[in-house]
Each structure stands twice: as C-alpha cells, then as structure tokens.
Design goal:
The chain contains 2 helices and 13 strands; from the N terminus they run E-E-E-H-E-E-E-E-E-E-E-E-E-E-H. By secondary structure, the chain is α/β, with parallel strands linked by helices. Strand 2 and strand 3 form a beta hairpin. The longest helix has 16 residues. The relative contact order is 0.17.
C-alpha cells in the first residue's frame, strides 16, 4: 500500500510567520480545504505522516502524526506542503518518480523497495495543476485561485439572487451566495 507523507521543509526566512513552529504548513487552508486534504484528494490516498523538524509532537484532532524529516521507504509519495493541488486527480504512472508544477518538483513517487533520502530532481516527471504557496501571504492568493472551484464542487455557484439591499464592490460575476 502506498503511503502519503507531507513535507514541511525547514525555512528560517520568516515567510511562514506566525505559523512556523506552531502547526504544520500542511494543516493550513488553501481555499476551502487544508493543503493535506488537497493532496489526499489528488492522490486518492490518506496522509500517513507529516514530515517536519519544526513541529515535532504536534497533534490535534484528525491530523496525521508528525515526525522529523528522514529517509522514507517506498511505496510512498512525499508531497510538498507549500503546494496546493487543484481539483482533479494527480498523474499516477508506475514509471513516474516526480510530480512538477511549472518545472518545480512538488512531489516524489517512491517505488516499492526504493528509498527517498531527500529532495532530488531525477527520474521521469509529470505536471500537476495547483498553486505554489510562498509563505503566509501566499495563502490569500491560493484562496482567490482555489475557492471558486471548491465552491463549484459543493454545488454552489454564481447566479443566486443577491439579497435585497446588497452592494457589490467589484465584479458581481464573482459573487457566490448559497448559504453565505
């Protein structure tokens, strides 16, 4: 059985403040879903572990265990937490070793018997759609890009009548209402 590991890479730049050290990046929301949930949906497998040297021992509700970054035996997928897949399944082929977005590796596919020892850029790759998240403020960009598709997945769409007395600032075609 293939296991999913989410990789929270070390980052001392401060771009993930105030979350870095408080909770895994994989547990932050990008649109309506947490980054972990987006990877689980894209790959069709639940997350087994979050790899992080910053939040060792973190546990809350239904999140997977957190353990320090280290070698992983396959079969496994190691997915970056600073990338949020868009809707739709990720490419899955027995020959693939990497998933990329705009040429950057966002996940490594480790075959049965293989070992992942850290990020590498070798082996066959396939592109995956999604949003690169460059720190805390990148979550806002992800929200803008991913939320319309998330709402559509719930069956919520534009075209619902605006409540009386509403004022829309900007493009009214972007208003999503049902149950708001």
């Amino acid at each position: 059985m293939t296991l999913l590991y989410l990789l929270d890479q070390d980052d001392d730049s401060g771009r993930w403040a105030p979350f870095l050290g408080a909770r895994p990046i994989a547990e932050l929301r990008a649109g309506a879903w947490r980054i972990r949930e987006r990877w689980e949906r894209a790959l069709g497998i639940p997350a087994a572990v979050i790899l992080s040297n910053r939040v060792s021992g973190y546990h809350e509700l239904d999140e997977p265990a957190v353990r320090p970054i280290g070698p992983i035996r396959g079969p496994a997928v190691i997915a970056r937490s600073d990338f949020a897949p868009a809707d739709g399944p990720a490419p899955r082929d027995a020959e693939l070793r990497r998933l990329t977005a705009a040429g950057r590796v966002v996940a490594w596919l480790v075959p049965d018997g293989g070992v992942w020892s850290g990020p590498a850029a070798d082996g066959p790759a396939a592109e995956i759609a999604g949003v690169e998240i460059d720190g805390t403020f990148g979550l806002i960009t992800a929200l803008e890009q991913l939320l319309p598709g998330d709402c559509a997945a719930f069956g919520i769409g534009t075209g619902d009548p605006l409540p009386a007395g509403s004022t829309v600032l900007g493009n009214p075609d972007g208003v999503i209402l049902r149950g708001a």
